[in-house]
């Protein structure tokens, strides 16, 4: 009870609005359908509760559901942890190594990034997950990863129940003829007969739940593998991308520098313990992080500043020649524009005729990675790509 109270506190009640989003609605619906159908199938048609195996199996199903929901809501409502508003380092000289966030009116701590969806600087931000309608970061990284582990395991168990239920109920209903195969779904031809007959609707519901369970196992299982890879290297998804860009920048300009990621402790077990602890709370305070020997505590932030400066050098200015309201699906621009809208939650910026947009050129001659299109000069460059896809604005290059 004490653990539950620590998760759902009075000041977190306003976070309930996070449930009113397509991500949590779909995720909770899948959990509810798979769990409910697995319990119904195992009690009514596969493994009755009056047997020891049936009772153990039913308890395991409930256990999967409780653990999945606990870690899911923990990741959603506890959140990633945010950099305190107005934060700055204790030593004023350290400010030169850090980026300043104009929205939060504070310096960005090492490993933190500003999330435009949450409108806050997130400590050790990994990504903004639409399925929990929150960021994955310092405080909830462990809960989020455990959810990614438990969900496939629970779905595998449920899939076994669905398959065995359909198999046992159809086994004595199938009759083979010389030229046809017949399935009698009216009643089972065996004793004892089930309390509720396994009809066509139950078969369809079990088959649908099986599809959801298998799809969830594959999709969420792949996400779990990706998360474990970055955790064992003591990185986040964003930091992996920053490291990749650092190598490209040094190779392109031939600086001779070798960027060493400072937070990898050199041991997968040590990296693992920074996220997963027996107490349930991650190590540290989310503001200051231990670094490997030979690295500066601001090695990563200095590299980020170099990449920002490089973007400003490579930026190209564009001028908008028509107004754009920022609507995601502007019906007034025609059906072609409406149906070719990219499926993304990235906000579009509203533009007026004559507004100037800074776009960053890639270092490579091949197509630039989408994450290359970040914010430069206070303008969302990913929105510029959306505008070109929407065919809303005719944007022409003009050197100012």
Automatic annotation (TrEMBL):
The chain crosses the membrane at residues 25-47, 53-73, 146-167, 195-226. Residues 97-242 form the Palmitoyltransferase DHHC domain. One of its GO terms (molecular function) is protein-cysteine S-palmitoyltransferase activity. Keywords: Acyltransferase, Membrane, Transferase, Transmembrane, Transmembrane helix. Pfam families: DHHC (PF01529). It is an enzyme of class 2 (transferase). It catalyses: L-cysteinyl-[protein] + hexadecanoyl-CoA = S-hexadecanoyl-L-cysteinyl-[protein] + CoA. It comes from the Eukaryota. The keyword Transmembrane applies. It is found in: Membrane. InterPro entries: Palmitoyltrfase_DHHC (IPR001594), PFA4/ZDH16/20/ERF2-like (IPR039859). Its EC number is 2.3.1.225. Belongs to the DHHC palmitoyltransferase family. The DHHC domain is required for palmitoyltransferase activity. PANTHER family: PALMITOYLTRANSFERASE ZDHHC16. This is Palmitoyltransferase. It comes from Sphenodon punctatus.
């Amino acid at each position: 009870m004490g653990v539950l109270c620590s998760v759902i506190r009075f000041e977190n009640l306003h976070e309930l609005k996070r449930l009113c989003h397509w991500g949590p609605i779909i995720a909770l619906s899948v959990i509810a359908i798979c769990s409910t159908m697995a319990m119904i199938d195992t009690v009514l048609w596969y493994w009755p509760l009056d047997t020891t195996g049936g009772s153990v199996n039913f308890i395991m199903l409930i256990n999967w559901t409780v653990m999945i929901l606990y870690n899911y809501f923990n990741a959603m409502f506890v959140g990633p942890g945010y950099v305190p508003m107005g934060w700055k380092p204790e030593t004023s000289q350290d400010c030169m190594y850090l980026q300043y966030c104009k929205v939060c009116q504070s310096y960005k701590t090492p490993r933190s990034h500003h999330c435009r969806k949450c409108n806050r600087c997130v400590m050790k931000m990994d990504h903004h997950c639409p399925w929990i309608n929150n960021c994955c970061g310092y405080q909830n990284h462990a809960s989020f990863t455990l959810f990614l582990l438990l969900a496939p395991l629970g779905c595998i168990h449920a899939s076994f129940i669905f398959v065995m239920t359909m198999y046992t109920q159809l086994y004595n209903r199938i009759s083979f003829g010389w030229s046809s195969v017949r399935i009698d779904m009216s009643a089972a031809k065996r004793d004892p007969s089930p309390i509720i007959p396994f009809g066509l609707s139950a078969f369809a519901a079990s088959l649908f739940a099986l599809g959801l369970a298998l799809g969830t196992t594959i999709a969420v299982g792949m996400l779990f593998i990706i998360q474990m890879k970055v955790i064992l290297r003591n990185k986040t998804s964003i930091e992996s991308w920053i490291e990749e860009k650092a190598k490209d920048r040094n190779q392109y300009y031939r600086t001779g520098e070798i960027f060493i990621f400072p937070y990898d402790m050199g041991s997968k077990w040590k990296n693992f313990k920074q996220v997963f602890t027996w107490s349930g709370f991650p190590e540290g305070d989310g503001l200051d992080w231990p670094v490997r020997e030979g690295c500066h505590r601001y090695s990563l932030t200095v590299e980020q500043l170099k990449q920002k400066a490089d973007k400003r050098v490579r930026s190209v200015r564009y001028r908008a020649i028509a107004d754009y309201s920022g609507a995601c699906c502007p019906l007034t621009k025609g059906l072609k524009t409406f149906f070719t809208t990219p499926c993304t939650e990235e906000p579009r910026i509203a533009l007026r005729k004559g507004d100037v947009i800074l776009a960053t050129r890639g270092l490579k001659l091949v197509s630039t990675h989408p994450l290359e299109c970040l914010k430069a000069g206070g303008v969302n460059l990913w929105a510029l790509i959306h505008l070109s896809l929407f065919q809303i604005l005719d944007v022409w290059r003009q050197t100012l």
